[in-house]
Amino acid sequence: MTSADLAAVRLTLELAGVTTLLLLLLGTPMAWWLASTRSRWKAPIATCVALPLVLPPTVLGFYLLVLLGPHGAVGRVTTALGLGTLPFTFAGLVLASTLYSLPFVVQPLQNAFEAIGPRPLEVAATLGAAPWDRFFSVAVPLARRGFVTAAILGFAHTIGEFGVVLMIGGNIPNKTRVLSVSIYDHVEALEYPEAHRLAALMVGFAFCVLFALYSLRAKSKLF
Amino acid sequence: MLPARGVTAWFGRSGSGKTTCLRLIAGLERGRGRLFALGECWQDDARKLFVPPHRRGLGYVFQEASLFPHMNVRENLAYAERRRRSDAAAARFDHLVELCGIGGLLSRDSESLSGGERQRVAIARALLAAPRMLLLDEPLAALDESRKGELLPYLERLRDELAIPILYVSHSVEEVARLADTIVLLENGRVLAQGSLFELFPRLDLPFAEGEQAGVVFEGRLAEHAEAHALSRIACGEVSLWVSRVARELGAPVRARILARDVSIALSLPGPSSILNVIRAEIMELSDYGPDRVNVRLLAGNVTLLARITRRSREALSLREGLVVHAQVKSVAVVT
Q: Would you say residue B80 lies in a domain?
């Protein structure tokens, strides 16, 4: 593989890693709130979380481009802070990936939390556990499986991004050219062998990841 | 006002609101108004006060023993111990394990235990948090008969040994008869009656007088053993009752139960008969029960008895209030 392609691999893994971590940090409280709230905001917010599942990635990419650009609401803030604008930077990619993979992390977590039911938490409360304590000592361990699913799906989904990444990231080697975009490039340049190599790599990777996920689930109950 | 130790049973039919009441006391559900318990105010809507459940210092045993599935028995118990109220003396782990009979289960997974074992662990766990009050929500309801029989003696021991009030929700007359000292009777979310077990059971106007379990509970002292026939005599004031031999020392307090269907009435002292216990008593009250029967409340010294007879017999014997008759008691069950 050429060094350009290797750079694409490295970049892709970095993007997926950072995005997944960020999503686990932000998505967990979101999933917990969605699972336990009875507020009338639950349905609208759940809908917003699920939007990236149905929207064409180019739509998401387009609106992000506008928002993050020099004339958009966020773009104006970042320029004022001296940070320039986010499109065509790695940070911009992370932001876009986070939004794009949001439902893939939040939904498994929310389902896992909901599956716990109210009883274990009531028990913990009667035993003297305060709300944070209940969350970490009971909810999180019982939702272990959800965390694994969320992490794996979030990571794998980000690896496979194309549309959003292309719009927000452009195609800048070493900075925003991820694997999916590299394959596109190779095909456009009729460099089929290189495209094959990368595409096969991605299929192999996706298969291994999902296989690991499903075998773990089949084997143990609580993982 | 409920007593500071011993078992108070909250009794009522399904849907009478007893579980809801318990959950309100525990803070697991929130009603409207004010809630006072253990000398503290736990809820006052006027002052926007609500003490959350984890700060009320209560132990709660749910109907389906809800052990944490991601921990084994020992870890479940340790969970409670670690969160023990700081001002409480350490509930002795070994003593509670022994009290609940779970010594051999400590390294087991909670999923592998039987229903009765799970409840015992749940009780030990609740007690390890050193609660100021123990609430049990129909702990035997989810168990079959033999498991219930296994668990009841442990509950009786708890009642005898714990120095904190115990609130026990149940719809089983038998459990209440064996365990309770005080009863709060609920119907449709309202308190219908409240008082000691001994006072409420014989009342003909309460649901206790209905069904096959209707009867009285009384307390007496072991007065005599008749070794030759393996019998013991319980004395309550001037009234004596013979029961199967009780393995306790003389003078020990004994609680016994007499079902209404085991009591019959005779106008005069019956001739030789197999019935051991014949007591002279005065009829205090009569009340129709169904189309064909009558409940009769009798008083003999300090002991109140309930008899269930047919309406035909009542008319044939011309039974009425104030009449002194002979109550024949076929069976007395000692409930310790």
A: yes
Q: Which of B152, B150, B141, B212 is nearest to B179 (CA)?
A: B152
> Within this chain, do residues B229 and B132 fall inside the same structural domain, yes or no?
no
One domain for residues B40 and B157: yes
| Residue A205 structure tokens | 């990777």
The two tokens of residue B178 are 């064996």
What ipTM was estimated for this complex? 0.80
Cβ-based neighbour number of residue B39 at 10 Å? 7
Closest-CA distance, B134 to chain A, in angstroms, reads 10
| Spacing of C-alpha B172 from chain mean position | 9
As a residue count, chain A comes to 223
Domain interval for residue B53? 6-200
B258 in any annotated domain: yes
> How many whole angstroms separate alpha carbon A81 and alpha carbon A75?
10
Tokens 């009752």 — which residue? B241
Mutation for B interface: A123, A138, A147, most B CBs within 10 A:
A123
Instruction: List, for residues B190-203, the tens digit of each pLDDT value.
Output: 888 888 888 888 89
| Smallest Cα distance from A117 to chain B, Å | 12
pLDDT tens column, A41-96: 999 999 999 999 998 888 888 888 888 888 888 888 888 888 788 888 888 889 99
Token pair of B106, please?
A: 């400590």
| Residue A8 belongs to domain with CATH number | 1.10.3720.10
Q: Residue B129: which of A120, A128, A130 has the nearest Cβ?
A: A128
Q: What is the pLDDT of residues A119-138, one digit of tens each?
A: 999 999 999 899 999 999 99
Provide the number of structural domains found in chain B: 2
- Which residues lie closer than 8 Å to A32 by C-beta, 6 or more apart? A109, A113, A135, A139
A170: left (phi > 0), else alpha (psi -120 to 50), else beta?
left
Please name the residue of chain A whose CA is at the shortest distance from the CA of residue B70: A142
pTM of the model: 0.81
Query: Can you list the alpha helix ranges (DSSP code H) found in B129-252?
Result: 145-161, 173-179, 197-200
DSSP-derived letter for residue B109 is: B
Domain range holding A211?
3-219
